[in-house]
Specification:
Elements: E1 17-20, E2 28-34, E3 37-47, E4 52-56, H1 60-67, H2 72-79, E5 90-92, H3 93-100
Parallel strand pairs: 3-5
Antiparallel strand pairs: 1-2, 2-3, 3-4
Length: 119
């Protein structure tokens, strides 16, 4: 039995787009838009050479998996909003995967998390 989400061998990346912004926690995210509302989704990255972490856009094989999920629209309606000062409401990949009841991607030792719902 799988306990974590595993990268599929074949996938599509039709939904979501990379969005560049000036957010205090990140400067690049995956943006899902429906009408005039949007939801930015971020994933933490790690550079082993410099031992630095940063938040950025999510892996491309996760975009369609999230967007086409049966519970995504409900999550989107609860958390999404209009753009204010170039920023959209944000959720981390773990927040959205737990909310949609998708098995999460494996957690790494270096990962941190936000202790509040709103990022």
């Amino acid at each position: 039995m799988r306990y974590h989400y595993e990268k599929p061998t074949e996938y599509s990346n039709a939904y979501g787009s990379t969005y560049i912004c000036d957010h205090p926690a990140y400067n690049k995210c995956t943006l899902f838009k429906i009408g005039n509302k949007g939801l930015a989704v971020i994933q933490q990255r790690y550079d082993s050479a410099t031992k630095k972490t940063w938040w950025g856009d999510i892996d491309p094989w996760l975009t369609d998996e999230l967007y086409l999920h049966l519970r995504f629209k409900k999550f989107f309606d609860e958390r999404a909003g209009e753009c204010k000062d170039g920023l959209y409401p944000t959720a981390s990949i773990r927040q959205i995967m737990w909310s949609l009841k998708i098995k999460p991607i494996p957690k790494e030792r270096w990962e941190t998390s936000f202790d509040r719902r709103d990022i």
